[in-house]
Amino acid sequence: MNKKQNNHKKPAVWQRHRVEKGPHLEILQARFDWLKHPKSQKEMKRLVLEANDWVNIVATTPDNKIVVVRQYRFGTEKITTEIPGGMVDHGEDSKTAAIRELKEETGFTCDNWVYLGAVEPNPAILNNVCHSWHAKGAVQTGEMTPDEGEDIVVATLTLDEVRYEIQGGSFRHSLALLALTKVFDVWKG
Which terminus of the chain has a lower count of CB atoms within 10 Å, N or C? Predict the structure, then answer.
């Protein structure tokens, strides 16, 4: 088949016939959707994880250093280097969440915010989006106030130091890396 024939063709939408609530998983709510396959008509059960939207913040200081956080991550059982980020609370827009998360996690504040866009973290099972913001000229104006379940160390790194962390494998968070690439070329150097 000629590939050009499929350039404008779209797959059929699966019709949902019923929904079952699954377990509440602290920051996620599981849901099971029963859908009919559009071609075979076979009914299939699919997992959806309902999650609040997320934010990631590329915060740069007046001397163009990058604000990073180091913390233990339960999923990988490792200490990681990342950019600040977190969940968008109910009733909050992504910019308000970014401002709040930057201040809570690092004690930094900023007056110059640039929206970098949003991506779907994993549309196969998650229903949320991750917004990225650039906080230009961020300064530390107070103490950090992390959530009860967080133990965070804050640092400011040069772009070369961030590249070193990436190459060394301590900075591997895909959504944080994506946000950084919207501001810097992190792969050179």
Answer: N
**Number of C-alpha atoms within 13 angstroms, CB side, residue 122?**
9
**129 and 116: one domain?**
yes
Percent of the chain with pLDDT strictly greater than 90: 77
Return d(Cα 110, Cα 134) in angstroms, integer. 10
Q: Which residue range is the domain that position 125 belongs to?
A: 54-181
Q: Are 83 and 180 in contact (CB under 8 A)?
A: yes
- Model confidence pLDDT, tens digit, residues 46-98: 999 999 999 999 999 999 999 999 999 999 999 999 999 999 999 999 999 99
Q: What's the CATH number where 62 sits?
A: 3.90.79.10
45 and 113 inside one domain: no
